[in-house]
Amino acid sequence: MSLPTSPPGSPAGPWRPMQAHDLPAVMALATAMHPGCPERADVLDERRRLCPSGCLILPDAQGRPGGYVLSHPWRAACLPALDTYLHRLPGQADCWYLHDIAITPSLRGHGAMHAALRILTRHALNHGMNQITLMAAEGARPVWTHMGFTPMHGIPPDITATYGADACPMHRAIPGTIQA
C-alpha cells in the first residue's frame, strides 16, 4: 500500500522535532483532544527523551504547536499500557510504535497525518522494522483502518483496556518489507 501524497497548500509548517519547551502545549492538546486517555506530562516527556526523532511537533501558521506525534521503537507482542513509564527502549525492538498523534481541526485535511506516517515509516525502515503499530482509541479505529492499519491479535486485554473500552491494537506492514 502506498500513502497518498499530501494536498498542496498546507497552512502548517513541516513537522519538526519536539523540544522540552513544547510539553505544556502538547499536554494542552492531549487534554483537549484525548479526554478519555489522560497521561501525565512526565510520562510523555519520557518518550520524548527516549526517542527524540520519533517525537514531533506540527506548527500552526503562527508557529505554535498545532499537532504532535509521540512514537518510538517497541515490541509488537507487548505494546505499552497507557500512562506508563518505559524506562528504556527495548534492545530487540521489532516495530515502530505510534503512541499518540493529535492534530488540531484547523490543520487537518492538508496531509499532516500522511506526512507524519511517512516520517515514522522512514524511522522504522532505518531501524530494520517492517511494521508500525498503535492502539486505536476513542473512536479512531475507522481512521486507522482508512490509513491501512488492521487489528492485531494476542495483545493482553489488560494492556488494551488502559486505552478505553473501544481500544483496538492495530498494525500496518511497511510496503517493500517482508512481514515476519
UniProtKB/TrEMBL annotation:
It comes from the Bacteria. SUPFAM superfamilies: Acyl-CoA N-acyltransferases (Nat). Residues 13-175 form the N-acetyltransferase domain. InterPro entries: Acyl_CoA_acyltransferase, GNAT_dom. This is GNAT family N-acetyltransferase. The lineage of its organism: Bacteria, Pseudomonadati, Pseudomonadota, Alphaproteobacteria, Acetobacterales. Coiled coil: none annotated.
